[in-house]
Amino acid sequence: MSALTGSETLTVARREGNAGRRKRVGQILLYTTLVVIALLFIVPFIWLILSSLKTETEYNAYPIRILPRVWQWKNYFEAVEQRRGMRGVHEYVGWALRSLGLCALNGIPDVLVSAMVGFGFARQRVRVRNLFFTVMLSMVMVPGLVTTIPQFVLFTRFHLVGTYWPWLLWGLASTPYYVFMFRQFFASFPKELEDAAEIDGCNRLRLFWQVMMPSAGPVIATCAIFSFQGNWGDWFASTLFLTGDKRTMAMALANAYRDPAGNPMVVQTMAAIVLFIIPTVIAYFLGERRIRESAITSGLKG
Question: Which one, 9, 41, 204, 235, has least CB within 10 Å?
Answer without folding.
Answer: 41
